[in-house]
Amino acid sequence: MTTPTTPSPLSLGVATASYQIEGAVVEDGRGPSIWDTFTAEPGRVVGGDDGAEACDSYHRVEDDIALIRGLGVDAYRFSLAWPRILPEGRGRVETRGLDYYERLVDGLLEAGVEPVATLYHWDLPQALEDEGGWLARSTAEAFVEYAGVVHQRLGDRVTSWATHNEPWCAAYLGYAAGVHAPGRREGAAGHRAAHHLLLGHAWAREALPGAHVGIVLNLAPVWPETPEAADVADGVDAIRNRVWLGPLVDGAYDERLLAIAPVLSDPELVRPGDLDAIKGSADWLGINYYTPIRPALGTGEGEHPEQGAYPGVERLDLVVREPRTDIGWEVEPRGLEELLVETHRRTGLPLVITENGAACADAEVVDGRVEDTDRIDYLRGHLAAVDRAREAGADVRGYFVWTLLDNFEWAEGYAKKFGLVHVDRSSPSLTRTPKASYHWFAEQVAAPAQGRGAAGLLTP
Ligand code: FCB
Prior knowledge:
It is built from 15 helices and twelve strands. It has 460 residues and is α/β, with parallel strands linked by helices. The chain has one domain: TIM Barrel.
């Protein structure tokens, strides 16, 4: 019989990402990023939208901190824009970029909110992409330099750090499916990028002394749609989940993955010592969860936007069941519960849900209110799933809602809205209006059941 243990307190927070909210892309010496380039290419983003203005958070940092404070949350997860700090990707440091994040961190601390920093949420300096981007090992080396520069300025005030956000998207949506920047459709190049992202993560530890260093993965439960789909589902699981967990936990890519992705056995790519460096390099795991994956055995030519993101898996089609959010993702809280329990079993690491939320076709602002009850239902269902996973023994330390503000949703532009706060894009003032879900989440944070009072996300 196992003795029941008291779960660690659960920190509650909200998350954002630099390119999605900051705007000010040519200000204070910021260099171009791959998303500036990608969004300028016709047909890449719905509506031709880009992040040039976004939510203008670069100029409204005080307003946004006030909104975060108003939620009463324990923590705020944000990302730093590499090209604001090292405009050419390496070498020359732009201190005005660092000043901005310092103002943010100090403001959060003053508001009693723990800053949780993500170093890479996809805005790679274009100068590095010009040298091969994540297909080049030298990008992982440049990432370590960047991590060191940031940590030197903020490491005395920020203790919870994530290296990458969803490297699966950076690698496979960016270099295989081509639906994210840099928009390359080169199949197996996705695997090459994945290895370099893992290396960058592992090496960056050295540059973050004394920190709790994690990596944020969009792991997903993979549920074959029919028994015949079991094999393609295993291939999907290999590329979505095991390509990260294998090296991080066991120091190895597994046999099936190597069969799908022979490049991962190429000694020019995976050099002696690489896998040893990656093994054990995460102190905690961030999990971004929105929806499960349901592979079917089909033609391999389905319409799903992620269709090209599993290179080497033949005859895969992706099925999406109802109900769906406004971005077309199935709503299934059981997926989160299963993922947490399973990932805890697999890794033994402290887990943080670093993103979870819903795109809703919100009602507009009427008399100062936005009644987004469907978002509240989504969040309520998923928080209950977190409770069940914790009761089942999963070591979950935090839950962050994606996201604070309606923002630039990558290839979907501004049309898909995930915010707890409405941003009025029709007026130059970009007026922020907290939605009903903002007030609801503030009530959850204040509820004694959440076991607050943590000293920090990873130091209860
Ligand atoms: C995740 C991203 C985040 C946001 C949400 C909806 O994949 O990390 O930036 O776009 O999806």
